[in-house]
Write a structure and sequence with these properties.
362 residues; alpha/beta; Rossmann fold; SH3 type barrels; Elongation Factor Tu (Ef-tu), domain 3; six-stranded antiparallel beta barrel; 17 strands; 25% helix
Amino acid sequence: MRVLAAMSGGVDSAVAAARAVSAGHDVVGVHLALSAKPGTLRTGARGCCTVEDARDARRVADILGIPFYVWDFAERFGADVIEDFVAEYAAGRTPNPCMTCNEKIKFEALLDKATALGFDAVSTGHYARLSHVDGAPELRRSADLGKDQSYVLASLTSDQLRNAMFPLGDSVKSDVRAEAAERGLMVADKPDSHDICFIPDGDTQAFLGKKIGNRPGTLVDDKTGAVLGRHTGVHGFTVGQRHGLGIDAPAPDGRPRYVLSLEPVSGTVKVGAREELAVREIVGQRVRWPSGRPIDGEVDCVAQVRAHGGTAPVTARVQGDRMHVTVDGELRGVAPGQTIVLYAPDPGGDIVLGSARITETG
C-alpha cells in the first residue's frame, strides 16, 4: 500500500512513519509548511510546524530511507484555521484550532492531494484507534487514555477515515519514546508541542487584540445586573474563566466569580457563581458521523466537550443538522464554539458515535 506519512518533526509522527515502513508499505514522508513566515511560529521545545521541525522530520526520513518533501499549505492554513479562529472569538465563541487543523488541513487538503497523487492512505502520529465494522471505519479512543486524541478527530467523515492510518493507537507514549530511541531517531526525547502554533509568545489575548482591535464593553453580575468592570473586548474571555477578569471587588459572599456568557454585539460579559456554569441542555450544528452511521432516535451515550476534559452521561437526538443533548450528569463551563463528541457507553465507552459544533447551552 502506498502511504503518505505526515511528519510534523515530533516523536509521534516519526514512530508512526517508522511503523508504516516496518509494515512493508511504500512510504513517502511529507512535512506541512503552515506559515509564509516560519519564524513567526513557536520555536524550540514548545514548537510545532516550524523550520526546526521540518529539519527534524527530514533527518528522520533519511534514517528511515524514505523520500521526503515539504508541502506549502500556508495559504490554506491561514484561511481555514487562523482566520476561522479569529472570527470565532470575535463572535464570542471558543474554537479549537487543532481540531480545525485536523479537519481542514490534515484530512481534507492533505488527504485530497495524497489521493490525487495515488496514495492509498495518510499516516499520522495521532493517538487514536481505527477498527472496521461491515466495511465502515470506527473511530475509537487510544490505548493511552492520557494521550487520547479521538476527540480532536471526531469531526472527520467516514470517507476521510477510510484513508487514514493511526499506527500509535495501541501504544502508550513511554513505549513510543523508547521505540524511537531504539530506532536511533534523534527526536526520541523531543518535548511535546504545546499551545497554539501560530501564536509565537503564547499570549492569545494580545494576538486577538491585534487582529480584532478594541471593542469596549462591561462585566455584569448575572443576578443583579450591576456593572462590575470594563474590558476592551469579549475576545479576551472564555466561558468558565475565573482569573484575569479585572474585577476589583470580591463577590458579596467572598466566592470567586466566573465568566458565564459572552454577548459580542453589546460587549457584555456576564459573570457569576461556579454553580451557574452547569449546563443541562446543549445544541450543536455541523453534525459529523465518523462511522457514517447516524444515531437513530434518542440514544443514551457519553459526551466530552474538551480535548482533555471529563465526560458525562447524556441523552442525544438529532433533527436534521442539529444535535440536541440532555446532560444527565454534570458538565460545567461549556461554551458555544466548542465541539461536543459523543461516545458509545458500552463496551468500554471508547467508540466515537458523532460530533457537533456547540451553538447553544442552557
